[in-house]
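Aim 2 progress. For RNase H type-1 domain-containing protein, the working sequence is reproduced below.
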Amino acid sequence: MGEQTPSDRTPLDVFTDGSKIGDQSGSAFCAMENEIIIKTWKDKLSPANKIFQVETLALNATIEWANTANKEVTICSDSESGLQTLKSFSVSSGGK
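Predicted structure tokens for this construct:
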């Protein structure tokens, strides 16, 4: 009864990025609510990681966090290939 519907929630904007410069690579995201940073995450990765891997890691970390945030979330990313990969996934309940 007292549950919020998505339209009652303040939406969060989450910005993701992954980068590789020389032999260093990393992933990060920043979540904002009403222009205030409420969550940041970052991870330094192996030099062997490809840019696709670091970009999709940032997206994955964002999705994992968003699933626990109990908020409507808009994910902003410049990784077209990462977003296309996510778009191709389907989720099922495991039933037949």
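DSSP finds two helices and four strands in the chain. This observation will guide construct design in the next reporting period.
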